[in-house]
Amino acid sequence: MMDKIGIIGGGAWGTALAQVLSRGGRDVTLWAREPDVVSSINGQNENVVFLPSVKLDKKLQATGDLEAMAKNDILLLVTPTQFIRATLEQMKDIGNKPLVICSKGVEIGTGLLPSQIVESVTPGTRIAILTGPTFAAEAAKGLPFAVTIAAKDIHFAEALQKSLSTKNFRLYASDDIIGAQLGGAIKNVIAIACGIVHGKKLGENARAALIARGLAEIGTLCEAMGGERETLMGLCGIGDLTLTCSSMQSRNFSLGAALGEGKSADEILGARKSVTEGVFTAKSATALAKKYKIQMPITQGVDAVLNHGMNVDEAIEALLSRPSAHEIPQ
Amino acid sequence: MMDKIGIIGGGAWGTALAQVLSRGGRDVTLWAREPDVVSSINGQNENVVFLPSVKLDKKLQATGDLEAMAKNDILLLVTPTQFIRATLEQMKDIGNKPLVICSKGVEIGTGLLPSQIVESVTPGTRIAILTGPTFAAEAAKGLPFAVTIAAKDIHFAEALQKSLSTKNFRLYASDDIIGAQLGGAIKNVIAIACGIVHGKKLGENARAALIARGLAEIGTLCEAMGGERETLMGLCGIGDLTLTCSSMQSRNFSLGAALGEGKSADEILGARKSVTEGVFTAKSATALAKKYKIQMPITQGVDAVLNHGMNVDEAIEALLSRPSAHEIPQ
């Protein structure tokens, strides 16, 4: 039995996963960097900072002691991608416990995926990836949701299916950790493009086409990096992409919408306190496309608009006037 | 050059395609079964019956003479799937012209896809499939859209890319006509399931999960019928599915939403004049699943609710309590 679960990261998603698993009968401890998160969970059964208005399970415990987390049977890593390295370095010894990475993104500077960061800091750790279409508030409220659980060894992924699933939380196993990570990392760039189409009132056909073509170019990067294109047909790929590209709740989609309406990126981003991840991912994914010598026209177009001053209309024109292509790039 | 294009079928989508191609400089003739469609297009440059409020290109001609359509270089077949057989039988000789099938669905009774109907009525005809996320009104207004063009011979598909594309209309080539047809045929069943989730307020995570799992089961049927799962990553698959499953404009999605809110299927369908295609497709796709001995749990659940009196809550419960599975079914 692997009943003691440690969640590393007390943001909205970490707290939601802690709540789901605690309600599902597991013994859950949540580590948070912020003392007020720890005290509000332990004192009021609520994460007033990152997931307000959701009453948490009374059994759920929070702690500020990172090293003590190694006592758990399984660890879920739910920090922002840019904090994975520092968190693991601070933790030093995770006691050879399975580490389920729930963070999505690409490390700025290195261009590494979360699993590659972990491999570089704590080599030898048994790694799995948990990712999919997951608005934290919905999951925390007990609504049903489903994710991909990926590990190089499919039997490890299958064991985690049993260890983590609850009545309303389903996990689908995969053995492709590259594909599983790329969907969640790059969807935010495609969401910006979909927002632009929305802001420019180009219609639902065009938005759906961008989702499909966006999936195709994530697939091309996936194959170049050693993953399988098919993995992106799952919850980690099309599931996450369709959610992010359809929701005005997404900061990336709404950034694109404002760009499409004629605002400038500086104007929009200057007024925001929180990070709009797709801006950085457009840059790092474009760098990956260059490294692997592949075409990612939507990603490259978003990067050109955000980071190189290209006009939105020019970017759309460039996309529409590309040469005819095959459905699945050869 | 293949500039003379005949469109067979004067519904909203046939009229929109005629408009797009006529504006794109082709010599287009539209055949419609209904005399008032023919007269309103020729007299008022508008299809007042099926695509009102869109001013059509003056060069666009309509006709009621089906046999004369064989004089065109390319024919686009845009009748409802259930009328393909009768239309082709009435036409008798299509003069060995390439036939681009734009109809989506499964023939009731036979369980045949459109290409299989054509092969049975006019064997030897060169066939292609044109399908994707396409709201007719948007395309007719000149907004950009993109589709899959599939033919067994990829060079034929590539030739059609050149013959049909316009400034705002892009075609992506594929050589898998089975995969290309299944997405458009079965999406309506998944849309009913997504509607149910919406009506029961189960959240966006659950809807996105159904889209991804729906794509997985369409892929399983596709492989069983000799197509390729990957084809469904394209415009014909995820493109069309994401559009239909996100829009309250879809009759199938809205049927599901009403079911989720507690209305009965008889009550909802009895009040409708137009056909809700997913009701029939749920039945025919379930028959195909049985024939090919595969699992299609979402499709089978929708069929059970619509055609065998299963309670909506029971169907959801059955989906959630299935055994753990792999992301891509083995």
Structural commentary:
Chain A is an alpha/beta fold and 330 residues long. Chain A has helices at residues 12-23, 35-44, 84-91, 114-121, 136-140, 154-164, 177-199, 204-224, 235-244, 251-260, 265-270, 277-291, 297-307, 312-320, and strands at 4-8, 27-31, 61-63, 74-77, 99-101, 127-131, 145-150, 169-174, 325-326. The first copy, chain A, has an eight-stranded mixed beta sheet, with helices on both faces. In chain A, strand 1 (4-8), helix 1 (12-23) and strand 2 form a beta-alpha-beta unit. The longest helix of chain A has 23 residues, at 177-199. Chain A is globular. Chain A starts with a strand and ends with a strand. The mean pLDDT of chain A is 94. At the A-B interface, strand 7, helix 6, strand 8, helix 8 and helix 9 of A face strand 7, helix 6, strand 8, helix 8 and helix 9 of B.
Short description:
The structure is a homodimer of 330-residue chains. The first copy, chain A, is α/β, with parallel strands linked by helices and 330 residues long.
Order of helices and strands of chain A: EHEHEEHEHEHEHEHHHHHHHHE
Q: How many beta-strand runs of chain A?
A: 9
In spatial order, strands of the major sheet of chain A run: 3-2-1-4-5-6-7-8
* Gross geometry of chain A: globular
- Low-pLDDT residue spans of chain A: none
